[in-house]
Design a protein that fits this description.
Layout (H helix, E strand, L loop, with lengths): L35 E2 L12 E5 L5 E6 L5 E8 L14 H8 L9 H10 L3 E6 L4 E8 L3 H14 L4 H18 L3 H13 L13 H6 L4 H11 L6 E6 L3 H12 L21 E6 L6 E8 L8 H14 L4 H9 L3 E7 L8 E8 L3 H19 L4 H18 L3 H15 L3 H11 L3 H11 L5 E7 L13 H10 L12 E6 L4 E8 L13 H11 L7 H8 L5 E6 L4 E8 L3 H13 L5 H20 L3 H13 L13 H6 L2 H11 L5 E7 L3 H11 L21 E7 L5 E9 L8 H12 L7 H8 L7 E4 L21 E10 L2 H21 L3 H18 L3 H14 L4 H11 L2 H11 L5 E7 L2 H10 L13 H11 L10 E5 L6
Parallel strand pairs: 3-7, 8-12, 13-17, 18-22, 18-23
Antiparallel strand pairs: 1-2, 2-3, 4-6, 4-7, 5-6, 9-11, 9-12, 10-11, 14-16, 14-17, 15-16, 19-21, 19-22, 20-21
Helix pairs in contact: 2-28, 3-8, 9-14, 9-15, 11-15, 11-16, 17-20, 17-23, 19-24, 25-28, 25-31, 28-30
Length: about 950
């Protein structure tokens, strides 16, 4: 069962979605294939009207018309994932073909295919899971027929060369090494390998590393794999947006109707019954803190059976951040800095996970015992019926809140269509969930949470973990609980208002304060972040944070924060039905914060852990980008990391937070953004309440110009890493309100559009050479780029940099070569400019792509607030108008005026800092080696690039241990 809230912290890397229904299984009616379905919102959780048809060849097609203008989302879930990889030595091919499907066909070779999609502004991506691979494209509706034609041809006639196959195999290897930096992924890989004996869930979607290394020589098997699984009976099309359903169905039949059906069915091995609890320890050199993963065998996908739904409800009731255990381990005792669950839906019985991170190794056994004691509690008690009902209410409204764009609706449907290829399974599943009673919860807990269903993994830098010599006896815990005696249950404001209220049942509110990390006083770096965290994740004067979360839970209301140098956004979402109750709670957090010592200690600890374990230990890519900003802004208000320096954070006091709140959270700095059907009475109370904030006399921070960068510099951060991440850049004067910004934004898109396979750097470094996972360029701050495809709003800055981000390379040699390649290409761009063809293609892409950046309600509000910050028109209109007036001469002039290679700072994150330092200082040759023959022209270019000078003086190269960064 897919519940969004169950993903918790792991959601950044592993996507989940879902809800709960209010009807019983008997109320779910049959849906005739080929018939237009009208769903009554009162009867179904998934209530959109849709057209569903099965073609004669087995292809399933679903079309949903929405009221979101212009944009269409096409999702193509293919029912093949790592589960289907049944042949020994051939793991990882489902994920590999996710990559290969972007190579095109004979009719639409890769360059032609990419050019068409780029000119049409198509956002084209994919992902692979245990059970399916999903291809998702978002675009303007006028391109629907052409996109369907191209994708149909590629699915039926995929074509690639041996050189392309081998090159992409290197890219996949690089992606594996990149992912290997994440302790969560390492834990999941270890527990699956240990928990399963025969079933293909033993390996992750990436596959076993030895199989990935062997992939370049598996081209014949690759073609066989494609022929088996890329057939219409495995494929669904989900088309959601501003479309005519009948006309769209006709387009599908025209392009996909003649695809020939296959006959292959994988023989998935049955997993034998586990005989005893299992435990392994994974040593991870250099890992800060200690990780624990407790996993139990679950059930298969069964939408009309109670087991799966009950297991997910148990996970939410007992292990979510609203649970007593979370409060005990993370909030009260602060034994753990992180705790979250992850329960992926799987066609066959999979695993149910609880992750915990602790600072002290002695606490691992305590956390393990607490988790299993909680499972024993689930087996012995009857959960409170009102608590269970509140959970169902929360999940119902969370589902509604999540369907806020055509893309969101389509992606949710795609995540279910691979099971039965029928959207009614959503309603079946949630109707089943709604019928679950406290007695069901207890009975199903006793069935699944048993000792011989458990696998435990610990991970740290230690050789072994004390206290794990003797495993938990869950049956003994259950017996001790059952034998124990039971207890009896006991006016006008000084602030700005951007009012975009409309008829949407979803209400988004954004309290945007023009302050942030740049306002941190010297010696108190991180106080802005800690203050924002205290407001959004701490209690009010009248209620504890625990009580607020409990009260918010049935409302499915959210309240969170985002921090940058000059902006703090406190924002939330709620259904209009619950707006008054929601506002009464969150307004107290914002306007009457409790500033409790226990919240302060907890949140300070989380921020420190986020820097140590989240940024410095586990995210080399983001670390490199943040170090670059840090080095470019020495002595400037932007110098420190947004979330602070570790020594400053450790020394901060609650009085520091109170002082920052009093001075910075003023009416003068506030813009209130509203969108959705916010009731008038709630709006009136909100405006009156905000007028009680201090007026203040500064509307925004005063930011000086960036420090002048002179010459070439390099910072090398040495840490335990199997790959090398690269970022480089320099300050620029052009910001969003500048006359030249749109032209420079186009240049950035051409050179390195974020997460796009059509950009120039991506083509030259990844596509042609297979060196890494992606290569991008930016002219605005774009954090969290590892996890998302579009930039967040509310990151407005008075100063920006031009930046190139090279995702991790396999070695220092490759990183050196890739950096040289990027500089080589940047020099060519500055010298030659952009061609007319590339200019027009990039402009067409951006004109079509811009509406997707504001495709959801909260993003519309966020970008509108940013337009006020930059004093520009509505973002989409502003950018489109500028793009339409641009000429090629304008763009090439802007390149010359803004880009240069005389003054650059480079950052390398690597496992061998001295080697990288030597390479840079000596201009060591970095020859590129391939596993397949390459064109003579490319080989000749490689020879030039291998010695292309970065020209960094030895005295300008600094090597830092990772422990020294943001200290």
């Amino acid at each position: 069962m897919k519940f969004k809230l169950l993903a918790s912290s792991v959601a950044a890397t592993l996507a989940l979605a879902g809800c709960v229904s209010s009807q019983s299984p008997s109320m779910v009616k049959e849906v005739a294939i080929g018939q237009s379905v009208k769903n009554a919102a009162s009867e179904r959780v998934f209530s959109q009207d849709y057209l569903l048809e099965a073609l004669d060849n087995g292809l399933r097609v679903m079309v949903v018309k929405t009221d979101y203008p212009d944009v269409v989302s096409l999702q193509i879930p293919v029912s093949v994932g790592s589960r289907n990889e049944v042949e020994a030595g051939k793991t990882g091919f489902a994920h590999f073909f996710e990559h290969m499907m972007f190579k095109g066909s004979k009719k639409y070779p890769q360059d032609v295919y990419s050019d068409i999609l780029k000119n049409s502004g198509v956002d084209n991506r994919a992902y692979t899971t245990n059970d399916y691979t999903n291809y998702h494209l978002n675009f303007s509706k006028q391109h629907l027929d052409k996109v369907l034609e191209i994708e149909a041809d590629i699915f039926q006639n995929l074509s690639y060369t041996e050189e392309q196959f081998k090159t992409e195999a290197l890219t996949v290897k690089g992606e594996y090494l990149k992912n290997n930096a994440s302790p969560i992924r390492k834990l999941l890989s270890a527990v699956r390998n240990e928990a399963f004996e025969k079933h293909t869930y033993k390996h992750t979607t990436m596959g076993f590393f030895e199989d990935i290394e062997a992939m370049p020589e598996q081209m014949a098997y690759g073609k066989e794999f494609f022929e088996k699984f890329y057939k219409p009976e495995y494929v669904s099309l989900v088309i959601v947006g501003d479309v005519d359903p009948q006309a769209t169905m006709a387009m599908v039949k025209k392009h996909w109707g003649n695809w020939q059906k296959g006959d292959y069915v994988a023989d998935i091995p049955t997993e034998p019954q586990q005989q005893a609890a299992k435990y392994i320890h994974e040593k991870n050199e250099g890992l800060p803190g200690h990780w624990l993963l407790v996993s139990y065998k679950g059930t298969a996908w069964q939408p009309t059976e109670k087991d799966r739904a009950a297991l997910d409800l148990i996970s939410q009731l007992y292990f979510s951040n609203n649970s007593p255990l979370y409060q005990e381990l993370v909030v009260d005792k602060q034994i753990a800095s992180q705790m979250f669950t992850y329960n992926p839906d799987t066609k066959d019985p999979g695993l149910l996970h609880v992750f915990v991170k602790v600072e002290n190794d002695a606490d691992l056994a305590k956390a393990r015992d607490a988790i299993n004691r909680t499972y024993a509690q689930a087996r012995t008690e009857l959960v409170d019926s009102q608590k269970l009902q509140d959970l169902k209410s929360n999940l119902k409204y969370s589902f509604i809140n999540g369907l806020d764009s055509s893309e969101a609706i389509a992606s949710t449907l795609a995540s279910y269509m691979h099971f039965e290829r029928d959207p009614e399974v959503i309603n079946q599943l949630y109707a089943t969930a709604d019928s679950i009673t406290p007695e069901d919860i207890k009975a199903i807990a006793n069935q699944y949470f048993v000792d011989n269903g458990r696998t435990t993994v610990t991970m740290s830098a230690l050789d072994n973990v004390p206290g794990f010599e003797q495993d938990v006896d869950l049956n003994g815990l259950v017996a001790s609980i059952e034998q124990a005696p039971t207890e009896q249950a006991p006016t006008e404001g000084y602030f700005k208002v951007l009012d975009k209220t409309n008829s949407s049942p979803l209400v988004d509110v954004n309290w945007l304060f023009n302050t942030g990390a740049a306002a941190d006083p010297q010696g108190k770096k991180g106080v802005a972040a800690l203050t924002a965290a205290m407001l959004a994740q701490g209690g009010s004067a009248s209620m504890s944070y625990k009580d607020i979360k409990k009260a918010l839970y049935p409302l499915a209301g959210s309240f969170s924060y985002q921090l940058d140098k000059e902006m703090i956004s406190l924002h939330g979402r709620v259904h209009k039905d619950n707006a008054a109750q929601w506002y009464a709670l969150v307004s107290e957090q914002l306007l009457n914060p409790g500033f409790r010592e226990d919240d302060f200690k907890r949140l300070k600890k989380e921020l420190i852990d986020g820097i140590k374990a989240g940024l410095k230990a586990s995210n080399d890519e983001e670390l490199g980008k943040e170090v670059l900003y840090h080095m470019l802004y020495q002595g400037h208000p932007y110098e420190s990391y947004n979330y602070g320096d570790l020594s400053d954070l450790a020394a901060l006091t609650l009085d520091d937070v109170k002082a920052f709140y009093d001075s910075q959270f003023t009416q003068a700095k506030l813009t209130l953004g509203l969108i959705g059907a916010l009731p008038d009475d709630v709006k009136s109370v909100m405006l009156k309440d905000l007028a009680g904030l201090p007026k203040g006399d500064e509307s925004r921070l005063s930011i000086p110009d960036a420090p002048v960068l002179q010459g070439h510099h390099a910072t090398i951060v040495e840490k335990s890493a199997q790959s090398t991440a690269v970022s480089f850049g320099f300050p620029i004067d052009t910001i969003r309100s500048s006359d030249d910004w749109t032209a420079l934004w186009l240049v950035r898109s051409y050179f390195g559009e974020h997460r796009s396979s059509n950009s120039y750097l991506y083509q030259r470094i990844r596509q042609t050479r297979g060196m890494n996972y992606g290569n991008y360029a930016y002219i605005e701050y774009f954090p969290r780029g590892m996890f998302q495809t579009k930039p967040d709003a509310n990151l407005g800055r008075s100063e920006q940099i031009f930046q190139v981000w090279l995702r991790p390379l396999r070695s220092n040699n490759d990183a050196h070569f890739a950096t040289r390649t990027a500089l080589f290409e940047l020099d060519k761009l500055i010298k030659n400019g952009i061609s007319k063809t590339d200019f027009e293609a990039t402009r067409n892409f951006l004109i079509n792509f811009v509406p997707q950046m504001v495709a959801s309600q909260d993003r519309q509000l966020g970008y509108a607030l940013d337009s006020q910050f930059y004093n520009t028109d509505n973002f989409v209109d502003y950018v489109k108008a500028k793009l339409e007036k641009l000429t090629l001469d304008d763009v090439n002039r802007v390149i010359r005026d803004n880009l240069q290679t005389d003054n650059i700072h480079y950052v390398f994150i690597t496992g061998d800092g001295k080697d990288m330092q030597k390479r840079l200082a000596s201009e060591q040759t970095s020859a590129m080696l391939y596993n397949a023959a390459k064109p003579a022209e490319l080989v000749a270019e490689d020879k030039v690039i291998a010695d292309y000078k970065l020209a960094i003086p030895a005295e300008n190269i600094e090597v830092l241990k990772v422990e020294q960064v943001f200290q």
